[in-house]
Fold this sequence. Notes:
CATH superfamily of the largest domain in chain A: Beta-grasp domain
CATH superfamily of the largest domain in chain B: Aldehyde oxidase/xanthine dehydrogenase, molybdopterin binding domain
Radius of gyration of chain B: 27 Å
Shape of chain A: globular
Strand content of chain B: 15-25%
Number of strands of chain A: 5
Low-confidence stretches of chain A: none
Number of domains of chain B: 3
CATH class of the largest domain in chain A: Alpha Beta
CATH architecture of the largest domain in chain A: Roll
Mean pLDDT of chain A: 96
Structural class of chain B: alpha+beta
Strand content of chain A: 5-15%
Largest sheet of chain A: 5 strands, mixed
Number of strands of chain B: 28
Oligomer: heterodimer
Number of helices of chain A: 6
Distance between the termini of chain A: 44 Å
Number of domains of chain A: 2
CATH topology of the largest domain in chain B: Aldehyde Oxidoreductase, domain 4
Strand order of the largest sheet of chain B: 3-5-1-12-9-10-11
Helix content of chain B: 25-40%
Mean pLDDT of chain B: 97
Radius of gyration of chain A: 15 Å
Distance between the termini of chain B: 80 Å
Structural class of chain A: alpha+beta
Shape of chain B: globular
Amino acid sequence: MSEPIRLKVNGKSVTITVAPDTSLAVFLREHLRLTGTHIGCDTASCGACTVHIDGRAAKSCNVLVGQLQGSEITSIEGITPADGSLHPMQAAFKTCHGLQCGFCTAGMVMSAIDLVTHGAHATETEIREGLDGNFCRCTGYQNIVKAVALGAKGMGR
Amino acid sequence: MNAARESLIGRSVERREDYRFLTGVGQYTDDIKLERQSYAYFVRSPHAHARIRAIDAKAALAAAGVLAIFTGKDVASLGGLPCGWLINSVDGSPMKEPKHPIIAEDTVRHVGDQVALIVAESLAEAKAAAALVEVDYEMLPAVVDTATANQSKTAVHAIAPDNVCYNWAIGDAAAVDAAFARAAHVTKLSFVNNRLIPNAIEPRAANAAYSRADESYTLYVTSQNPHVVRLLMTAFVLGLPEHKVRVVAPDVGGGFGSKIYLYAEETALVWASKRVGRPIKWTAERSESFLTDAHGRDHVTTAELALDKDGKFIALRVDTTANMGAYLSTFASCIPTILYATLLAGQYATPAIHCRVRAVFTHTAPVDAYRGAGRPEATYVVERIVELAARELKMDPAELRRRNFIRSFPYASPVGLTYDTGDYEATLKRVQEIADVKGYAARKAASSAKGLLRGLGYSCYIEACGIAPSNIAGALGARAGLFEAGEVRVHPTGKVTVFTGSHSHGQGHETTFSQVVADKLGIAMDDIDIQHGDTGKVLFGMGTYGSRSLAVGGTAIIKAVDKVIAKGKKIAAHLLEAGESDIEFANGEFRVAGTDRKKAFAEVAFAAYVPHNYPLDRLEPGLNENAFYDPTNFTYPAGSYICEVEVDPATGVVRIDRFAACDDFGNVVNPMIVEGQVHGGLAQGIGQALLEGCVYNADGQLITGSFSDYALPRADDLPTFVVETAKGTPCTHNPLGVKGCGEAGAIGSPPAVINALVDALAPYGVRDVAMPATPYRVWQTIQTAKR
């Protein structure tokens, strides 16, 4: 067994020892039972498993827990307010009907927050390019693009 | 008196299901972890066709954590996965139905065919053990190509030596021949409707548990129709008592048809769960989705359209070969027949149509319904050949369509359907406005000035949805009813739980159905809960596919609501000491007509459950009604699409500059949800036209087996669609007047895109570009044409 990994998940300190081939996605889902992060592929293609590592979007299926010593992880559960309300980006997805089956949604929202925080999102083209790493098979992306623009406003970006 | 409250029908109410999906608390099948959970992994065939000489699983069985290993020998006495639709050949013989074993017995027939099921304490251990299973294969030649499968010396199944499942036909061949003999013009085109891989973002998954306490099974599964899964699995494969099996399809992450079918994996898991004595979970890896989800389309077609001197269509002749894959999936046989050839009239009054369909087996994954299912293939035939005819006759393609539109309803088509209503002129006229066809010439000139080619393409589609009248379906070979069931359970406080046999996997039924029920009962949407996807809760269900949920499932709910109101009137009449015929129900109140004497809905509900002052001598207590609804006809959504593309002849890159859609879905309950359905359908249709194509090599190896090789549309591949729902012609035979909207975009859009592309390439004399029209293929087409 490898040495214990200390990291923060959604603001809480976690110390764990896991098999070295444990991905962050499996760790969140199976060990912490944070099942809001979904696995749609295992090749970092679909983006359903997107979370934030130290504030930046990353595909958690393609990151090993062993790489995360001292990191801060935020999953969809971590951006959801405890009072039953929604993060401005989540609220924008609801307003704009930016989700249907919901399976890609958590990853899409996490990517969108990263995009409007760190990336170019002034135009529709920039938003579309910024979401290039996340598949949605239901919406045709149109309402997701609208949602990201609205969510950016809600986040003051 | 209260003012009548504003109707909820036609309002874009935000979705009630969104909170759980947005915050990560939805519950999908793979999220469920049961007590003493064990995990499954399937050893799959790496070969398209091979005989299994021997399987040595001794080392695997001894590996750490392994609980059990099952092979084809263990399940040989079980039934095969059934096909739900019998198609007879023109000579009267029934289609060939080879056994579809849940684990391959002595032969594997496609890459990914399951060879062994390994159950272990953990997924990692199951996978590690799989690597230790030694299978001795005798490799055999594979049949892969759709068009030539019937000429192969290799048979996929011994019972079909020429690989033909059936030879089927519809229409009046003699009338068609006669019309062709007198035609002023004939347009002919051969093409392939490209094979697609559905790729719902949630992979298929199952979790099966056996309870020794009451000898019952529970299966959680990614399904669009859990009751159908239960019925087929228990009655046809496992021989289990149906009432001892509960099938739950919880939140399901997209289906698009691929989650309709009974698959081998969940069936094997249910069977094995009793033998292992532990719950067993299996979740497909994406590579397994590519290899084993039922694929879609895969037709090879030659079509001929005969026109008279005035440009009227006088006959259509179609010959199609459809690939079934290695085994018959649940509805495979009816897709290229009943759901395809019956739609070949399109929106046009073509008096004579004949279609011949040859279905063939190949060593590829099974092919079944994928969003649109037969109707996209039919629309592609009709709308490509009509556009090509217009080009050959140097006619405006919109004008040629107008000249041939069906204009009086009901209309009995020569391929067996009766359209109840429609207004094709209205949607075509409107889409021309919203696509700004008037400004096209200027845009084309601007493109030319940049050295780019611009083209505009139409598609006027029709579909048959609201599947289906059971008696008609039965006469056509269906082995199941196609009604829907609903239950409205009114609680003592007047709150309502609705149980529906429809299944929502992205469609927003919890919102739309609540709107309908709230509107009918005059109570708040928050006082209504919609339950679906659980055979332990819902009385029965045929499920969600074929754009049927609101038209069929919604109608069943309305019928149950009507029964609730009818009983409520009896209760209210007693409470108000009035005659039952004097009671009116509106705005959530039972009222004695013409008076202010009334009882609120909740008061009547309370009386039904606390029947102290109640006509117990005549009326049972309680307020809980169910209904089954079997439609009397299909519904016929229709619309017109215009696509405008810009092509760079130097690179072959096709950019969709604009895409406009005007759909007639009849009445619309939630326009926001309906538009979202159209967006998604368009994305899949445009994906088929420009990006997606499933490719097997000659050995039957899947070349497009990953997201790196199979191009699902990403956000920057698609334009912003201009989508409008027409005021429309309400369906004449269901109470809501709705037609269905889930598949329209995928049905109507591929020919619009290719018509636009062919229009753009017209300067090179190009008549056709095969789908998917990738940059390489378009560039090649241009180079070939230049020579």
